[in-house]
Design brief:
Helices cover 40% and strands 14% of the residues. The protein has seven helices and seven strands. The protein has a single domain, classed as NAD(P)-binding Rossmann-like Domain (Rossmann fold), CATH 3.40.50.720. Bound molecules: NADP nicotinamide-adenine-dinucleotide phosphate (NAP) and D-gluconic acid.
């Protein structure tokens, strides 16, 4: 096998929300595999810090302020990247939010906000990049799903609905555009140590570990939280020619948690 199939030289990649966390590590890995990398976010200060952090890794990532829920901004983002770097070959829909609120206490507006970022925005982003991919004769779309694409849990109704929908959007893009040599797959991270899950890992006032932290470690065969770096290899694989016959698949990168009933207390 030609191992260059895992390289991304000459490719243009856009990772949404890659100012920190999972998106940052995925964007860095795509760059280290040879891609020219663009990323977007909404917060100028985090953008600046991210560009410096990419530079410290020897990566010349191009940052764009863009709210992925705004269709006009999304269209303008894709057009600007095409001018600056070229037509987008790889899109990673990573930008996402979560609101942990019991359903009966959650306002309709709060539910809509989560659906807007986590489900509507990946639709808008995919719609914006697919025409260029069709013209180019190939494309890779990677949607960052979640274990909540498969499982529910208290207080995350909007997030689980969005990520379940994102799993099916992934399969539908595969169905509709596979004939144009576009592969659309998902990555389903398990519990990963990022700002988004920081509240679930906070030390208690007596210095003990958060009960949820203990719960997740007991439920995970790897007996640890994932790190954003754990997602780098799977992302490079799904962004590369090595996965050209993988389509509509959700690759769970979860330390085995979805396969395991959990350690007996
Ligand atoms: P994070 O650290 O909170 O990063 C989320 C990123 O999304 C931030 O950089 C944020 O950038 C950006 N963002 C949020 N709303 C945006 C918008 N409207 N437009 C543009 N950018 C926006 O979260 P993370 O843990 O790395 O999560 C990244 C993805 O992985 C999310 O889709 C999340 O649902 C998913 N995921 C996370 C885990 C986990 O355990 N951490 C597990 C499974 C799936 P700014 O704030 O700078 O705008
Ligand atoms: C939560 C967590 C999870 C993770 C991830 C798991 O509150 O349960 O935030 O939702 O973010 O999605 O795969």
């Amino acid at each position: 096998m030609d191992m260059n199939a895992f390289r991304l030289d000459g490719k243009v990649a856009l990772v949404t929300g890659a100012s920190a966390g999972i998106g940052f590590e995925i964007a860095a890995a795509l760059a280290e595999a040879g891609a020219k990398v663009a990323f977007n976010n909404t917060n100028p200060k985090k953008m600046e810090a991210a560009i410096a952090a990419y530079k410290a890794r020897g990566i010349d990532a191009k940052g764009y302020l863009c709210n992925v829920t705004d269709e006009e901004q999304v269209q303008a983002l894709v057009a600007q990247i095409e001018k600056d770097l070229g037509v987008i070959d790889i899109l990673v829909n990573n930008a996402g939010i979560i609101k942990r609120i019991p359903m009966l206490e959650m306002k309709a507006e709060e539910f809509r906000q989560v659906i807007d970022v986590d489900l509507n925005a990946p639709f808008l982003m995919a719609k914006a990049v697919i025409p260029g991919m069709i013209k180019k004769g190939h494309g890779k779309i990677i949607n960052i799903c979640s274990m909540m694409s498969e499982l529910g849990r208290e207080t995350v109704s909007a997030y689980a609905a969005a990520k379940g929908g994102l799993k099916m959007l992934t399969r539908n893009i595969c169905a509709e555009y596979g004939e144009y040599n576009i592969q659309c797959n998902g990555i389903g991270p398990g519990y990963i140590a990022t700002p988004q899950t920081a509240p679930l890992r906070e030390r208690q006032s007596d210095g003990s570990r958060h009960p949820f932290d203990q719960f997740i470690v007991a439920k995970t065969p790897a007996a640890r939280w994932g790190e954003p770096e754990d997602l780098a290899g799977p992302a490079v694989f799904l962004a590369s020619d090595a996965s050209n016959f993988v389509n509509g698949h959700i690759l769970y990168v979860d330390g085995g948690i979805l396969a395991y009933i959990g350690k007996q207390p």
